[in-house]
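I hope you will forgive my troubling you with a question about protein structure. The record follows directly beneath this note:
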Amino acid sequence: MITHDLRILADAMQDKKGQNVVSLDLRSIDGAIADWFVVCDGSSTTNVGAIADNVLKVMQEELGLKPIRQQGGENNFWVILDYGHILVHIFLSEYREFYRLEDLWADVPRKEYKPRPVSARKKKTD
């Protein structure tokens, strides 16, 4: 279920202090490169790298997903992780403000994610 996947992704971002986590539903856009964008920002390049590393880890461990492509890890100003149907954008805060990616898709459904305590999350059971 995609909502569950997006929540896991948002939690992974927020676990490493990802800020302003939002998902954009692009399914109504003809020719969109993904069904969903999930966007957040970090306060430093180190923070951006930690968020990206955690997303990679959690998406693999929890959902069995590996990115098709990834870009930006060499400088951690803007990291993109392409999971096919979900495109993850992790920005350094000033880059997010400059590029204003969400403004390009202002007319699509948008969901903002608030941090949840670990105790409120479902535990994975085998």
